[in-house]
Amino acid sequence: MLTVSLQHALPGFGLDVQFEAPPGVTVLFGRSGTGKTTVVQAVAGLLRPDQGRVTLNGEVLFDTSQRHWLPPHKRRMGYVFQEGRLFPHLTVRQNLLFGQWFAPRSAKRESLDRVVELLGIGSLLQRRPGRLSGGEKQRVAIGRALLSAPRMILADEPLSALDEARKAEILPYFERLRDEIGIPMLYVSHSAAEVARLATTVVVLQDGKVQRQGSAAEVLGDPAVLPAGVRAAGALLEARVTRHHADGLTELEAGGVPLFLPQITRAPGSQVRVRISAHEVILSRQRPEGLSALNILPGTVENVRTGGGPGAMVSLRTPAGRVLARVTRRSAQALGLEPGANCFAVVKTVSIAPEDIGSGG
């Protein structure tokens, strides 16, 4: 358990945050400039906040009121930066082994072979960083951090410098870290898709303060929490793969409701997370018939939020979980959408992108 309490003056605003990060992946989520990186740097010991106290598993890393400050190298944090920051004169293997030099002899260690297999970098071991892609560099940087036997991984927007293809390449490896290694992680992101794929806990920062903390499904399913903008709003559903069909579709079961996606590689019985964007959901007061869309979820309207524009955000409680739909205010009024109204959410199978489907954790 990581406990954080920080106060620090930043240009234009003051950072004042308190939160707890339980085991798993805790994502600091919010727009750029809200203080996310400052928090991570303070936890790592790369920045001294004006005031604060941070503990990890009961050990005090620093406490300004007691003038206690544990040096960064004694905190045993594995830091993954936005860029790989590999040593250019060393091979991949040598960069990885450099991490082992910082692992205490008494610490539980991952073997080099295990880390290489986990990250799929066996073919890269003799290369130097100059011959690696951005995604390959980040995988090596993750491996170096793991081999230092860290008590926690700190990942500061590790995908922000990558294009969409490289992001899709790296995300499954972070999922494997979460599911197979079990080292707690503090992960910084402003991407709702990354949060949906990785987070077990989400801490939303806004204007230097904690706006909301909770599970990924709770936070992403709350239409009031939109740090990445309305276009990024969406729900997160937990589902189980039931079978793969010959026509290229995969069938899932979520709360007793069938869902169909373009075929995925998970085996039947696997747990998956599915993010459904609010702007991809159509609403109907009656169960629709004669549609090409395969995913129809019955639900009840929880609330309808409107702003100054023509849009409305409708929150539905369905057997599969909370679903958000972004419609026009005119449509919401015409359908009589209000709390308690029965409704059906319609989602096209092909509207669910591969990057919105992750392992269940």
TrEMBL record:
Residue ranges of every copy of the Mop domain listed in the record: 290-356
SUPFAM superfamilies on file: MOP-like, P-loop containing nucleoside triphosphate hydrolases
Keyword tags: ATP-binding, Cell inner membrane, Cell membrane, Membrane, Molybdenum, Nucleotide-binding, Plasmid, Translocase, Transport
InterPro entries: AAA+_ATPase, ABC_transporter-like_ATP-bd, ABC_transporter-like_CS, Mo/tungstate-bd_C_term_dom, ModC_ABC_ATP-bd, Molybdenum_import_ModC, Mop_domain, P-loop_NTPase
Molecular function terms, GO-annotated: ATP binding
Limits of the ABC transporter domain: 1-232
PANTHER family reported for this sequence: ABC TRANSPORTER I FAMILY MEMBER 10
Full protein name: Molybdenum ABC transporter ATP-binding protein
